[in-house]
Amino acid sequence: MIEVQNRRIRIIEAGVVRGKTRGSLPARVREIYDGVRDVITTLQPQTMAIEQLYSHYERPKTAIIMGHARGVLCLAAEQAGMPIHHYSATQIKKLLTGSGRAPKNQVQLSVQRELSLPEIPEPPDVADALAVALCHYYLASMPTQVA
Q1: pLDDT digit string (tens) for the chain, length 147 residues
Q2: Which residues are catalytic?
Q3: Is 125 annotated among the ligand-binding residues?
Q4: Distant-in-sequence contacts of 110-113, Cβ < 8 A, 24+ apart
């Protein structure tokens, strides 16, 4: 979660919510839901930005699991009355690095630079989430262009 005051961006909270139960998809999904709901209740964000899933995964099972987790995020945000914004990985990468095909480490370095962090955020999932948040902020703050 980031906060912007006077065009200064700062991290409010950054971490990972994971299901810890092994072998039980319903239990893991519930743990993720409870964790995200707790974050929303505690920090009361105004909006949620998430990365869109893409269909060309090398591991289809991973894509399906990610779909479950993404659904839980959408449900928690919807129940809280929070708008949800979806961005593609290439859109996020292009906005932060100038290239939609930038490698993960280049995105991590961009997040570190944009947030003036002493180190790259770890684990990489945290850097990815912050990249999505930055993408949303930059796109939401750009004036709309009249055609």
Answers
A1: 999 999 899 999 999 998 888 889 999 999 999 999 999 999 999 999 999 987 666 778 888 888 999 999 999 999 999 999 999 999 999 999 999 999 999 999 999 999 999 999 999 999 999 999 999 999 998 866 444
A2: 51, 125
A3: yes
A4: none
| Full residue range of the structural domain in which residue 98 is found | 2-141
CB 80 within 8 A of CB 33: no
* Residue 126 within any structural domain of the chain: yes
Kindly calculate the radius of gyration of the chain based on its CA atoms and give it in whole angstroms.
Answer: 16
Question: Tokens representing 126?
Answer: 């945290």
Count of residues making up the chain: 147
We report the CATH number of the domain holding residue 49 as 3.30.420.10
Instruction: Please report where in the chains the tokens 């299901």 appear, as a residue.
Output: 19
Is residue 51 annotated as involved in ligand binding? Answer: yes
Please, which residues bridge with residue 9 across strands? 4
Give 74's contacts (C-beta < 8 A, 6+ positions apart). Answer: 50, 84
Helices 25-43, 60-79: crossing angle, 10 deg rounding: 40
Task: Say if CB 27 and CB 19 are below 8 A apart.
Answer: yes
